[in-house]
């Protein structure tokens, strides 16, 4: 059995319980240093990089560190409720700021030569195209908690430290695979229109309802041998703790989906504004930036309807009018 805290979780334990695994600290440190190195490389070349993206990167790393090193990580093996909170943070929350930090774009801009060619080859590989396909990423995201909770992997992860740590890594990677096409900031092998992105986000809500409510209503323990041993040490009610965990999976999942929907609508609106500005600049390059003549119904004499010029060929005037809207071919 893995190390179980001597006392059950309380307010004091929630505030003071910390245990930072050395390997995790090393991984988070390397990830933070690599990002800062990329930003420093760009600035040395005179290429700007948004400071907010750097902040988001460290927010994501911080969420991973807190969820695995604070009381959430200390009690995640002994309490199903803490395990549920950790699952939600690692899979649904932390990958969002990491994706918004655009690490792939930073790596492509900061690298050159052989490292850049290797990165491009990986991004354009068939394997990456498959696992990052929105439908594949969505299926992996949805089925992961069901497999890990309802299979023997759940109890193995409670008693085996290596399997336990690998499940943490799996949660983060699966969340990143889904958020990559949803956020659409980094270059994508399979770009998605915003309508389909919204549909995928909406589909996450029912998935967590189906996951959380049956656990909340369940009258038998998951991994009963393990949690009954914990209860004999703490004197707590493991079934009540499990019901709380199921409710957290349900409610927490729906709340995160609402925030994702709000972010998606905001991102969609900004994208439409950028596209409109791009079209305006394109039209200005073609026709100049002169003030456009108002239509006849907004003129001083709206009762006077201008007549179209006559032509011996009835199709000639139509083609002349439509050609004026098209960009001339060189």
Give the tags:
globular; mainly alpha; disordered C terminus
Task: Describe the 3D structure.
Helix 2 (22-44) packs across helix 7 (103-110), helix 10 runs antiparallel to helix 12 and helix 11 packs across helix 12. It contains 16 helices and no strands. Helix content is 73%, strand content 0%. The model is unreliable at 311-330 (pLDDT under 50). It has one domain. It starts with 10 loop residues before the first helix and ends in a 7-residue tail after the last helix. With 330 residues, it is mainly alpha-helical. The longest helix has 50 residues, at 238-287. It is globular, with a radius of gyration of 27 Å.
Could you provide a short overview of the structure?
The protein is mainly α and 330 residues long.
Report the order of strands and helices: HHHHHHHHHHHHHHHH
| Main sheet record | none
The protein's oligomeric status is single chain
Overall geometry: globular
Task: State Rg.
Answer: 27 Å
- Strand-pairing-aware structural class: mainly alpha
| Total beta-strand segments | 0
Number of helices: 16
Distance between the termini: 75 Å
Helix content: over 70%
Q: What is the count of structural domains?
A: 1
Strand content: under 5%
SSE topology sketch:
Elements: H1 11-16, H2 22-44, H3 51-69, H4 71-75, H5 80-93, H6 95-100, H7 103-110, H8 113-123, H9 126-131, H10 134-150, H11 153-159, H12 161-183, H13 194-217, H14 224-234, H15 238-287, H16 314-323
Helix pairs in contact: 2-3, 2-7, 3-5, 5-12, 5-15, 10-12, 10-13, 11-12, 13-15
């Amino acid at each position: 059995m893995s190390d179980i805290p001597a006392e059950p979780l309380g307010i004091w334990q929630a505030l003071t319980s910390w245990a930072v695994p050395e390997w995790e600290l090393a991984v988070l440190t390397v990830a933070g240093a690599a990002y800062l190195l990329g930003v420093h490389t760009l600035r040395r070349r005179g290429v700007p990089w948004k400071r907010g993206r750097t902040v988001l990167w460290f927010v994501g790393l911080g969420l991973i560190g807190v969820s695995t090193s604070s009381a959430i990580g200390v009690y995640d093996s002994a309490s199903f409720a803490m395990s549920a909170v950790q699952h939600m943070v690692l899979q649904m929350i932390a990958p969002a700021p990491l994706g918004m930090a655009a690490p792939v774009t930073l790596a492509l801009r900061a690298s050159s030569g052989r490292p850049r060619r290797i990165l491009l080859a990986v991004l354009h590989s068939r394997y990456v195209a498959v696992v990052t396909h929105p439908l594949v990423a969505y299926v992996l995201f949805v089925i992961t908690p069901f497999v890990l909770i309802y299979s023997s992997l759940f109890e193995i992860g409670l008693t085996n430290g290596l399997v336990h740590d690998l499940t943490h890594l799996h949660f983060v990677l699966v969340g990143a695979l889904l958020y990559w096409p949803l956020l659409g900031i980094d270059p994508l092998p399979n770009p998605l229109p915003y309508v389909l992105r919204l549909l995928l986000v909406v589909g996450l809500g029912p998935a967590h309802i189906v996951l959380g409510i049956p656990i909340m209503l369940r009258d038998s323990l998951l991994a009963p041998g393990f949690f009954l041993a914990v209860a004999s040490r703490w004197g707590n009610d493991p079934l009540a703790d499990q019901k709380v965990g199921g409710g957290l999976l349900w409610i927490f999942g729906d709340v995160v989906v609402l925030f994702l929907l709000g972010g998606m609508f905001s991102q969609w609106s900004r994208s439409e504004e950028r596209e409109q500005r791009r079209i305006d600049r394109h039209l200005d390059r073609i026709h100049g930036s002169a003030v456009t003549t108002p239509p006849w119904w907004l003129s001083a004499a709206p009762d006077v309807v201008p007549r179209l010029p006559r032509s011996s060929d009835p199709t000639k005037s139509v083609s002349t009018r439509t050609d004026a809207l098209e960009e001339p071919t060189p």
